[in-house]
């Protein structure tokens, strides 16, 4: 789903924060990045969402070609054309097969072949080809959400003067279907019941753990394909840490791919499909979560064993 190639970030012309990082995140995985303070973890996530500029030879290819859900179709085709395509072919995966093909489908979809109808189908195919495989490093930060990428930054960065509900509504600012947003808010509140109890409360009055939940929920309401989490357990009590990691597992079980940056290596690796260890801007180890938990170097450096 995401393949990072030779990612380099240089600060102030000579400080090499990332020295050529390569990593992959496959669809449906939880991938964990662990490392000490200053190793480059936060810089990596910021580069992926355009908040920090990477060197020109770097790339981070997001491949969405496996996605055939209705929401992705709607993002590409718009509601009216999506409805026509689904009415014609029934299932969204069949629609995507038709889009990827070179078949003349405008007559099937619109009832007749015209210049305008052909242009609409060709435009959809062009947009699909541009959308399904893109280099995140070439996008401005505000476009990342258009490609299904949501970033929960270190320090939460919620809107403290707004209510919980208003923060969540800000997370849905790129969406337009009020009915679906309302339904998704209900689902968010089921996953984060504490937030529902406090939905009219100013976000700045929440506890640290509740603010972290709000930051994650705000990202999820955008309906991301991949969620980037930066130190979600930082500064939280053990009870909240356990709750946050349970929520991360639940989000992943519901279909969200996750790239997780964490200093709590034991908790992170225990839920990870795969993981990477970064030191001074370089990946020095990689493996499954279980392999890294059992690695002697990881134990000595990060697990206190």
Q: How would you describe this structure to a colleague?
A:
It contains 13 helices and ten strands. The chain has helices at 41-48, 70-89, 92-100, 106-110, 115-131, 164-171, 178-191, 193-197, 208-220, 238-253, 265-271, 289-293, 296-303, and strands at 2-11, 15-25, 30-34, 59-63, 133-135, 149-152, 226-230, 257-262, 274-279, 282-288. The model has no long low-confidence stretch (mean pLDDT 89). It has a six-stranded mixed beta sheet with strand order 6-7-8-3-9-10, with helices on both faces. Strand 7, helix 10 and strand 8 form a beta-alpha-beta unit. Helix content is 44%, strand content 20%. It has 305 residues and is α/β, with parallel strands linked by helices. Helix 2 crosses helix 3 and helix 6 packs parallel to helix 9. The protein has two domains: 2-63 and 137-303, P-loop containing nucleotide triphosphate hydrolases (Rossmann fold); 70-131.
């Amino acid at each position: 789903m995401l393949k990072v190639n030779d990612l380099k970030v240089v600060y102030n012309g000579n400080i090499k924060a990332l020295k050529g990082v390569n990593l992959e995140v496959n669809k449906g995985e939880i991938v964990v990045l662990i490392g000490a303070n200053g190793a480059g973890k936060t810089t990596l996530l910021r580069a992926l969402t355009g908040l920090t500029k990477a060197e020109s030879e770097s790339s981070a290819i997001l491949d969405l070609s496996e996605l055939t859900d209705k929401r992705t179709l709607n993002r590409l085709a718009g509601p009216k054309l999506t409805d026509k395509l689904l009415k014609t072919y029934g299932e969204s995966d069949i629609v995507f097969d038709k889009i990827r093909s070179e078949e003349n489908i405008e007559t099937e979809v619109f009832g007749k072949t015209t210049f305008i109808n052909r242009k609409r189908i060709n435009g959809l195919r062009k947009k699909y080809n541009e959308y399904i495989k893109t280099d995140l490093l070439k996008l401005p930060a505000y476009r990342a959400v258009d490609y299904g990428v949501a970033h929960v930054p270190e320090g939460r960065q919620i809107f403290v003067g707004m209510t919980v509900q208003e923060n969540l509504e800000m997370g849905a600012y790129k969406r337009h279907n009020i009915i679906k947003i309302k339904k998704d808010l209900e689902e968010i509140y089921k996953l984060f019941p504490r937030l529902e109890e406090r939905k009219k409360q100013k976000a700045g009055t929440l506890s640290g753990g509740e603010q972290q939940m709000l930051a994650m929920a705000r990202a999820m309401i955008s309906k991301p394909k991949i969620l980037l989490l930066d130190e979600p357990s930082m500064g939280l009590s053990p009870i909240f840490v356990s709750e946050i990691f349970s929520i991360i597992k639940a989000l992943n079980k519901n279909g969200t791919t996750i790239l997780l940056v964490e200093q709590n290596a034991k908790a992170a690796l225990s839920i990870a499909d795969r993981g990477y260890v970064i030191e001074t801007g370089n990946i020095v180890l990689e493996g499954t979560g279980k392999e890294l938990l059992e690695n002697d170097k990881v134990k000595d450096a990060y697990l206190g064993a």
